[in-house]
Amino acid sequence: MVENVGGIEALLQEDRRFPPSDEFRNQANISDPNVYEEALRDPEGFWAKFAEELDWIKKWDTVLEWDPPHAKWFVGGKLNVSYNCIDRHLKSARRNKAAIIWEGEPGDRQVYTYRDLYREVCKFANGLKSLGVVKGDRVTIYLPMVPELPIAMLACARIGAAHSVIFGGFSAESIRDRIDDSQSKLLITADGGFRRGAIIPLKQNADDALVSPTPIENVVVVRRTESADDKMVAGRDIWWHDLVADQPMHCEPEPMDSEDMLYLLYTSGTTGKPKGIVHTTAGYLLGTYATAKWVFDLKEEDVYWCTADIGWVTGHSYIVYGPLANGATSVMYEGSPDYPDRDRFWAIVAKYGISIVYTAPTAIRTFMRWGEEYPQRHDLTSIRLLGSVGEPINPEAWMWYWKNIGLEKCPVVDTWWQTETGQILIAPLPGITTLRPGSATRPFPGIDAEVVDEAGNPVGPGGGGYLTIKKPWPGMLRTIYGDPDRYVEQYWSRYPDIYFTADGAKIDEDGNFWLLGRVDDVINVSAHRISTMEVESALVDNPKVAEAACIGRSDEIKGQAIVGFVTLKDNVTSSDEVIAELKRHVATKIGAMARPDDIYFTAELPKTRSGKIMRRLLRDVAEGRALGDTTTLADPAVVEALKQQYGDDE
To answer: Residues 256-314: pLDDT tens digits?
Structure first.
């Protein structure tokens, strides 16, 4: 039964609480706790009030049409996302404000004011038109973290073409699958990108993907590394700088219906073809605008940095659309956090006076392992708010982040959401919420979240089960591209008319949500359902452990056995004694049923470039199976080393 999920009671014993300071509350964008009740009582009125803050070509007739599982928001309205992210800011002093501060891994940098951004987006939008791209077309973007990436996205939005951004770590086969599914007519790529001092051969990957037949008619190439001048295909490829050279500096924004598709973003399943998540125009823009404004407490003078890659939804929503719709200054960085040294992130914070940092728990745990000396090299006093995204954050990682990066003065907003949700759904409001290390706290106003059991019954405070969303929200996906039946089956078939997140969660007695990770990240040991996050939190709680990931391995007696993959702190040597100590530590923290059967030591855990641990590959190692798809890994050598070290033991 799902009620046993997690053995989470140990986690809920976390009793540290951090209410907002009077100083923070007094300056916060929202500090009235009544907003939750008001939004829940009239969610359509709540979202409509926020929508008044956007610029509309034509106001909507109806806020919401809900025919489960299909929602339409701001029906009859027309607007343009690019206009809302750029043009409307040109009417004020923001025209000369930095919109994007970009730093390349080699140290080159560029600042785009809102006026600069307008000019570059319009020129590229006109360039797209000159290549025959029209409203309704799909455009695939396969770029490193360079300014041309958000410029291309905003140019597509400006002319009504849907963009499909592919993360720069994907293989040629993955690119081809996504192009074929979306039937894109244009590909935007670069000759390469920089990562840890090496060049990632993006143009070569793109060329390998474009085998006949392909719907791609033209390839626009950004000249970043000067490493592919000999790979340009005559009649198909065109350099970005040549395309925009003589284009007009104004492009009229296309009036878009509220429900017109803004973009496609593919998510990889463990099996089956990638799912093309469809996000539309008005609801998505509103969701990212509202959550960026309130969760990050964005102010006119803030310098905001989301460290994600734009190839993932976090970058779409909280590097590009949410911050720019708010008129914020958004920082982009091309490369690795440890190049040329492990203090690169903190050097960037100090250089640009960054005031808001939004990063992943995996990155935070990596920084913990590296040690406090690296952030201590730099002045981090400009930071006033910290954020976390990507997976549940361990309480000790939360505390390290709060202490060593936030200098014990900054709220930490731990956020829960998904590619499919488009926007943050559960997170603190830093001017209102009492923070709990390890908890994403409460649903955003207007979001009706509930934890239910197997039968769909609410579990109530103290109960654990499956996280669901009971009512539609503006930023929600509308369908899976070309596969509406899969949309219904994947998200709406488990419980009638309720969105199934596939995440486990528990609600504490105060109503705070504690996320447990994906349902398939639950280990069933002798009928005890134990969350991987719970075991990982217990391991990381030991002072010798920097980072941990746990998986379930098939066991003919217990059903599944717990296997822990552990990265020790730099000053700790692995040994049988340490293994025994860690097993005892977990049993003490959670109970004997959670004691790992095996603990493997590894210098690094296999992660995607967005910072997520690939537990699926750890299962392959633990089960002695052939490795699954490794194309999204930041460093495929990590899992290969694990396979060689431990794979033959089974």
So the answer is: 999 999 999 998 644 457 799 999 999 999 999 999 999 999 999 999 999 999 999 99
Cβ 269 vs Cβ 277: under 8 Å = no
Query: What tokens appear for 225 in the block?
Result: 């590394």
The domain limits of the chain are 2-489+496-505, 526-649
Peptide bond into 375 cis (omega under 30): no
* Among 87-96, 193-202, 613-622, the least confident range: 613-622
Q: HEC string of 265-309?
A: EEECCCCCCCEEEEEECHHHHHHHHHHHHHHCCCCCCCEEEECCC
**Chosen CATH of 2-489+496-505 out of 2.60.120.620, 3.40.50.12780, 3.90.740.10, 3.10.129.10:** 3.40.50.12780
- Asked whether the beta carbons of 259 and 75 are under 8 A apart, the reply is yes
Sequence-distant (6+) residues with CB within 8 A of 435 are 17, 18, 19, 411, 412, 428, 441
Buried b (16+ CB within 10 A) or exposed e, 2-41: bebbbbbebbbebeeebebeeebeeebebbeeebbeebee
Q: pTM of the prediction?
A: 0.86
197 φ/ψ angles, rounded to the nearest 5 degrees: 85, -10
In the chain, count of helices (H) and strands (E)? 21, 30
Nearest by Cα to 566 from 398, 396, 402, 365:
365
Residues 144/202, Cβ–Cβ less than 8 Å? yes
Range of lowest pLDDT (12-16, 174-178, 601-605): 12-16
User: Are the C-beta atoms of 172 and 612 separated by less than 8 Å?
Assistant: no
Under 8 Å between Cβ of 188 and 139: yes
Reference 506, options 472, 476, 529, 539; nearest CA is: 529
Residues 381 and 370: their CA atoms lie apart, in Å, by 21
Q: What are the backbone dihedrals phi and psi of residue 569, each rounded to the nearest 5 degrees, phi first? A: -65, 155
**Angstrom distance (rounded) from CA 279 to CA 284:** 7
Q: Are 380 and 407 in contact (CB under 8 A)?
A: yes
Mean pLDDT score across all residues of the chain: 92
Distance CA 630, CA 628 (A): 6
Instruction: Tell whether the model's pLDDT for residue 54 goes beyond 60.
Output: yes
CB 585 within 8 A of CB 572: no
Pick the CATH number of 526-649 from 3.90.1200.10, 3.30.365.10, 3.40.50.300, 3.30.300.30: 3.30.300.30
Query: Using CA atoms, how far apart are residues 319 and 45, in angstroms rounded to an integer?
Result: 27
Backbone angles phi, psi at 211, to 5 degrees: -80, 155
pLDDT over 70 percentage in the chain = 95
For the beta carbon of residue 234, count every other beta carbon within 10 angstroms.
5
